[in-house]
Design goal:
single chain, 400 residues, alpha/beta, FAD/NAD(P)-binding domain, 2 domains, seven-stranded mixed beta sheet, five-stranded parallel beta sheet, 9 helices
Length: 400
């Protein structure tokens, strides 16, 4: 890793040092004996965010999800500890928030997804108090478990917004775990658990949706689809929802609420020539090359790829991007293809998990020789213990 004063031009510039950026950098390091690469990333900490579901359910301490970013910057790569402020792809340079101009031959855009806490009135002011919790921030996830374990009955609300989110099944996971916790605590009989989702179904792929509908029915969860959270009234402890079709508004009083906040592409991307109409980085969904700027390769959550935004998707995207990036450097055709594979391990309770794996077409692409749409202890153990090791020691080292 190089941390000295950065140069003003690199052969390969990676913007973003999260899951996607580090995975690509690690794979490039293994493929190229010598390379001129820099990573633009201001954060000094790196988080394995899929663990936060289990942290919010009291299974693990949040500290297990945190490591030093420096430990994963590949040897030989320059680490520029700044934020990107502007993209100028027509002239092959970026500008950082400190005003530094950095040029590149090839650009990898891996800025992740932006959490828009401020888009729901009352959420930013209320989060972390008054039994308003969310698993979507490291400094907030402990409060989720505090709300769950101190719940003494009443209405427990769980929400999903009308935007893309990190792992489409995640808003349900904490609900199923909380339902189990309420039963263990002897308060489920005095409780109403409501899942208010802006989406039209519990899950996009029928094979797994059928299972989740049975889980919700078995647990007695009140599922309200096409209900989008638009406001929190803090003093009254009320949540206001708008029906995504009729626009009719409904107010639900709550004793606890777990909010999945709306998310979008980072503002710096939305304001750039790289963005598509929806604000994400425009991208060829098979080659991962930008359609207008052929030396730009988007990856992960910030990209406009029509698939779920998960770390598992990045694990399959990264080798395709690296192969095609190296082909572009050599002036060769881009032959590697990404089929839209993604995976969502959906926890349905303590010791139970449905492992959803599918491609662009919604066709299941399952890893194991059994029906993964069934709830299994083995798949729960995979998520809790095997996948974090695969992440830290495999993906971020370019080995998986």
């Amino acid at each position: 890793m190089t941390t000295s004063t950065p140069k003003d031009h690199y052969q390969i510039l990676i913007v973003g040092g999260g899951t996607a950026g580090i995975t690509v950098a690690a794979q490039l390091r293994r493929r190229l004996k010598t390379y001129d690469l820099a990573i633009v990333e201001p954060s000094t900490k790196h988080y394995y965010q899929p663990l936060w579901t289990l942290v919010g359910a009291g299974v693990f301490p949040k500290e297990l999800s945190e490591r030093d970013e420096a430990a994963f910057i590949p040897e030989g790569a320059a680490w520029i500890r700044e934020r990107v402020a502007e993209f100028h792809p027509e002239s092959n340079f970026i500008v950082t928030h400190q005003g530094r101009r950095i040029g590149y031959d090839f650009l990898v855009v891996a800025l992740g997804i932006q959490i828009d806490w401020g888009k729901i009135p009352g959420l930013q002011e209320g989060i972390g108090r008054q039994q308003i919790c969310s698993n979507y921030a490291y400094h907030q996830v402990d409060y989720t478990w505090e709300c769950v374990r101190k719940f003494r009955g009443g209405t427990a609300l769980f929400t999903m917004p009308n935007t893309a989110v990190k792992c489409g099944g995640a808003p349900q996971k904490i609900m199923y775990l909380a339902d189990d916790a309420f039963r263990r605590q002897g308060v489920r009989g005095q409780s109403q658990v409501i899942f208010a989702s802006a989406q039209g179904t519990l899950f996009a792929v029928e094979r797994y949706r059928k299972t989740l509908e049975k889980v919700a029915q078995r647990k007695g969860i009140d599922v309200r689809l096409k209900h989008n959270l638009v406001e929190l009234r803090l003093e009254q402890k009320e949540a206001v929802f708008e029906h995504v079709e009729s626009r009719e508004r409904t107010t639900i009083p709550f004793d606890m609420i777990h909010v999945t906040p709306p998310m979008s592409a980072p503002d710096v991307i939305k304001a750039s020539p790289l963005a598509n109409e929806a604000g994400w980085v425009a991208v060829d969904k098979y080659t991962l090359q930008h359609p207008k700027f052929p030396n730009v390769f988007p990856i992960g959550d910030c990209s406009g790829l029509p698939t779920s935004k998960t770390g598992a998707a990045i694990r399959k995207q990264a080798p395709v991007l690296v192969a095609n990036l190296l082909a572009a450097i050599d002036g060769q055709p881009l032959t590697a293809r990404y089929d839209g594979y993604t995976s969502c391990p959906i926890v349905t309770g303590y010791g139970k998990l449905v492992l959803a794996e599918f491609d662009y077409e919604g066709t299941p692409h399952e890893t194991f020789p059994f029906n993964q749409s069934k709830e299994r202890l083995s798949m729960y153990l995979l998520k809790a213990y095997a996948l974090p090791r695969l992440y830290w020691h495999g993906m971020l080292r370019g080995r998986a």
